[in-house]
Amino acid sequence: MTVPAPRARRRSAGRVLPLLLVVALLAPMSVLFQQTWRLTDDDRSLAVRERLGIEYLQALGPVTAALVDAQSAAVAGRPASGAALTGAVERAATVDARIGPELRSQERWAGLRAKLEALRDRSPTDPEAAFAAYGEVTDLLLDLHRKVRESSGLVRDPEADSFFLQDAAGRELPAAMVAAGRLADLATLATRRDADDRSRTLAELAALRVGALAPAGELVDDLRAAVDSSESTDLGGTVLTPLDTYQRAVEALAAASGPTSTGVIDPAPVAGARLNAHAAAEQLQPVILAELDALLTDRVDGMDRDRWLLIGAAGLAVLLLAVLAGVLLAAARRARRRAVEARRARLADVEPAGPPWPPRPGPGGPPSEEPWPAQVTGQGGDPEAARRGPVDAAR
């Protein structure tokens, strides 16, 4: 009664082992797929978020340019129309309403916009007060640039070319534009200040000159580093031409704002050089941001292709494992059939072909198929003794 149990266990093991083998191969493959997918998804999410930051910076560029121009007009005592600044603010507000919650910039933009609204109502009768008020607003604007770069992940970009491009367009160029505007405006204010304030004015001019030229120089270094490290063949030809124009304008600004023997700076050449640098910066920033966006778009497309390849490879691996499982199960079934056939063959060789005793003749009819009972054989029911009975009687 206990013999069939091991055979049942062997049959169960024969069915389970192929499945265990498939699961053993499928488990590490699933872990590898999940890890690769997660890493690819993280990189893709970062690139998509960076593109949102680029879109926001593109909206802040016209705001920066219009705000610097409005500051120069207010310091010079000229009434500004404000149409350019108002239009730029409205377009930036639209962008902030759409992607600001994801970039966590709405609070800073609300504070900046409130200051901008207050500037439109300010009378241009006090140049010194206007210079201070616009300085506070431009500081908020530069802080918003920094916030957008941080929250969008641009400051953590892993590629050298795109990192240098975002640093140039999102940090150095706005800082250089604001500092150049302040430098030209302070040169205008210096002619109206008393002689007692000359030393303080010269120190402020020197600081603003450094503040305008230093980010401009770092901007040039960033763009040249981006071109040198990029695999894109279009980046150099697209960026270097407006960069050369901007670099020449900055050099002219440095020459016009340089120290003189009298210590007095002529505001007219500084203002003209600032306008040229401002115009060159307005041409350069969209080019940088467009090239940066193109690099990130190519990166996202490449990640999408990698994800489809990963899905295809995983599907092919699962299909191959299913085929392997089917082959192993079929082999196990064939092995069981061969074992059953071999066992039947052995039993056929051991057991006799016919009945162990002759059939009992029926009364007046054909032989009966029933065996003789023990009472007829007289041998205690031994069929072998019943067969020997007639032979012994003949002897």
- Count of individual domains: 1
Count of individual helical segments: 10
Q: In angstroms, what is the radius of gyration?
A: 46 Å
Class derived from helix and strand content:
mainly alpha
User: Beta fraction of the residues?
Assistant: under 5%
How far the N terminus sits from the C terminus, by CA atoms, comes to: 46 Å
Number of strands: 0
The helicity comes to over 70%
Morphology call: elongated
Low-confidence segments: 374-380
User: What's the mean pLDDT score?
Assistant: 80
Q: Largest sheet at a glance? A: none
Order of helices and strands: HHHHHHHHHH
Q: What is the topological layout?
A:
Elements: H1 4-76, H2 83-103, H3 106-120, H4 127-152, H5 160-190, H6 198-229, H7 234-256, H8 267-350, H9 374-377, H10 383-394
Could you please describe the fold and organization of this structure?
With 395 residues, this protein is mainly alpha-helical. The chain has one domain (21-308). The chain has 10 helices and no strands. The protein has helices at 4-76, 83-103, 106-120, 127-152, 160-190, 198-229, 234-256, 267-350, 374-377, 383-394.
